Each structure stands twice: as structure tokens, then as C-alpha cells.
Amino acid sequence: MRLKELCGLRGVSGDEGAVRAFILKELEGLADEVTVDALGSVIALKRAKEGVKNPKRLMLAAHMDEIGFIVQYVRDDGLLRYEPVGGVNAAVCVSKRVEVGKSALPGVIGSKAIHLQEPAERTKPFTHDMLYVDIGAKDKKEALARVQPGDYISFMSDYVEFGEGMIKARALDDRAGCAILLELMKGRYDCELICAFTVQEEIGLNGATAAAHRTNPDYALAIETTTANDVPGAKAHEEVVKLKDGPALSFMDGASIANRPLFEALCGLATAKKIPFQLKRGTAGGNDAGAMQRARAGRPVAVISVPCRYIHSPACVCAQDDIENTLALCQALLDDFAQIQPKFAKED
Question: Which domains are delineated in the chain?
Fold first, then answer.
């Protein structure tokens, strides 16, 4: 699985080119057809096994983009004002290392020093308008010689394996899903498999909206990451999901409601195959399933997610076992598609 390489690529929403190039290279010899749509999503098709009549079209989507920032303007003192791209909490930004523009110019997100803050300021959380990016320029002229408004900014964070099977990296949301889709493209199944590596999920599910309309699948699943809040201070129902308890199945979130027969079929398949899984105990947020569900006349959708601590930060943490079990559940769905598809095709 090429997760380490994928997490090492910069790909803030709207700037997914490096990730796209890597995925296109990996798809050589795996996909029967590969297209890049007008927004930049990669759509890979694997035809059904020979002899399968009228195969159904199953779309799996994972987004290539990550949260980050964009240069808004350069101040007279050479510091950069930025805007967040996607849902980035200012609290995780202070003193973090970043890379700016195509040249990956190193910088640091700075703030007013604590010993210069008024007492009242110290009790308030940081907001993005209180922060800036320092690239070491002495003034505006020197900064503009290196960066321009509109340049993308990404967190600088290494891929690290630690503890017992744990991974820390930037952009595990959703390079984990991308890595899983690449593995699934190695097989051939009783359905037409469409793997959509989508763009701009973090700013409104834009890539999935276009990709689902273009491919017109019969069923669609988002292969995602989701918030694991299994940390000190959280009550059981606030944990949402837990690391090392397996992939999370969502019955509902802020963007979609899972097709009930498809959701139940996935639960039954995981149980039958002895693949550990958990139900997501929370309905906040959304993902590409929300866009795929509304494609054309509507599509049955479901979501399978890898639990992820500290999501939307430069130090996302996932468990290798959860990633492998998410792959196993997706693989089982595809391998047994002919047998279980009638169970979630009651509306056909």
C-alpha cells in the first residue's frame, strides 16, 4: 500500500496536481480506462469479469485533496495573511511549520507572543485573523519576490510510524482512502468498479458532484476517514469512533443518510467475514457520499471510514489495523458482490 508516498505529497483543495500525477502513474496497467475530468478528479474504470451479464456499476470515491491555506495578501512587514482552505481550527496552527507556493518555501505560522498579550487576550482562543505566516522576509518587496497572493500553503509534517501499529502524517484524510482504492484496482469483480479519486472535497464535495454525474453509478460508497475522539475527557458517546476497533460504518451524517439495505449488507458482510467494525456514534460533518447521493436522479450510498485522531491537523493519527480492515471490508464487498448485491438492491 502506497500510503507513505501519498501522504508525502502536497495537495490542498484546488492544488491536487502532485497527488493526481502519482495516482495516474500507479493506475498504469491496473485500470481498463482512466480519465481526468474538467475539475481534475481521476476516474478509473475496471470492467467486470468476463461473462458477467449486465453488470452493475459500483463507484468508490476517495478524495485527493487536504485542508490547508492560501495566501490572501502580503503585509508591509513581509508577513503573509492567509485564508484557510477547508475546515482548519486555528488552535492547531500556531507555531506549525508550513510550505508555501510551488517552490515549497518554508515558513512558520506565527502569533502575538504570549508575554505581550493582555490578560484578557490570554483567555481567548486564537482565530485565523490573529495569525500569519512568517517566511523570513524583511519587508513586502522581499516577500513578493518569493510568493504571490493565491499561492497555496500546506502543513509540513513527516509520515511517522510509532507505538503499536500507529501512523502519524499530514493528509491521512483522505490519502488513506486513496491508498485503499489503488489496492482494490488490482482485482477484477462481478461489477464494473469505478474508483474516483476526487478533488475539492474539503471545500464542498465539488469533485464527487461532477464525477458521480459523469459516471452514473448504480451504487456509490465514500471511502473516508472520520473523527476519533477516543481521548481523555471524552465521554463514551462523545468518542464517535475508536482507533483499533475497525472501520466505521455511518448510518447518517451531515451530508447523507446511508441506504439502509446497503448499510445492513455491509454490517452483515463484516460480521460474516469476521472483519472488526464499529458504528459511527455521531452525525456531524459530511463527505463525498453527500454529493453522490444526489447525482442525477439519486443514488444509494454508504460510507466506510478509517478512524482518525486529530483530523484536519498536521498530525493526523490512524491505526494500521484499521486501514487494513477497511481495505478487507471493501475487498469482501467486491469479491462477494454477486451474492450480496441482491440484498441491497431491493429498490431495483
Answer: 3-66+170-344 (3.40.630.10), 68-155 (2.40.30.40)
